[in-house]
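seq:
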Amino acid sequence: MEPWIREKIKQIKELYPDERLEKSKARWRAIWAGETPPGRYPYLFLPVSMNYYNDVFAKETGLTAYLDEFIYRGIIDDDFIPAFFPGCKQGTIPSMFGAKEIVVGRDYTNERILFSAKDIDNLPEPFIHPGTSAFEWLEMQKYYLEECEGEIPVHVCDMQGPMDVSGQLWGYENLFLCAYDDEERFHRLLETASDAFCMLWDAQQKLLGKHFIGTHLYGWDWVPENNGATLSADSMAMLSGDFFEEYYSGHLEKLAKRFGGITVHSCGDFNAVVRRLCAIPGVKAVNASQMTVEQLLDAGWSSEKPIILQEDIERAPTVFALAKEKRLWLNTAFSGLWPLDENDVAIHPSHWTNEHKNQIKNKAARVNEAALI
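struct:
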């Protein structure tokens, strides 16, 4: 281990001693087990110095950026557990079929390689090879693990579910029409995309072993060991409840059975499918980036299953009061903690004054008070 890495890890361990980490893990485990967490509800604040899903780093740059992120946010006592997150590229699993990556700004998509239903018959078997995003994530995870000598665990990369992988390969409009025009090929495509999902998940789990954290929802979260798989399904915001149940729910159920449960994410408003999603055997939790806990419950999500969501810090008292009243298992990431300049731009932690730090601690303390049980 290089001296500069050793020094940063020393700082991280001082900020996050084992006693603190074990208390946080006990709270997280309770939420996932449907039990009252000890002392208070677990919660997190959003990252302070980086965007986990939009910032795509070279592995060397990422190593420094993440170690610094862990140190910066160590001034507050939320339930963050330091761990590397490789990143997010929509074209990760499509690359396993030979789809070339397209980069526009910080968007990483891929070329379409399907142009008709008949092309599904000739879709190559998925595999992980040099030059693909999937291979690059594995190389990055290996690098983090080796450079830090296993001192800091590593998350699974962002994993797109079979509907979204298929949409990337062909275009969502073509995919949805195919469900009606050629149902057999439609399901065969989603099954092949599911196989690729399993292949990449298994490869990461095998590589990282005991250092593997099986969630990318969110990339700064933590889940207990053997907690199933997590997948992104942003396509759910486009689907009616009937279409979802007839053409997608079965594929999610198969993945849930394969991994011992799944947690499913969607951006946007996917209230039309919430009730049916919740009813799928093996769906353990939902991650909603742009729906409130009230909206999810109104749409039919069960209070017995965990909800992973993002809320503004001003809503903390309301969110935790609702959790206590309805006995909800919430995994909440709060925005609005870190100081902004006069243009509402985040002030980098290297420029924080003592006044900034005091403001941060005072705001964090109010969230902690609201979370007490």
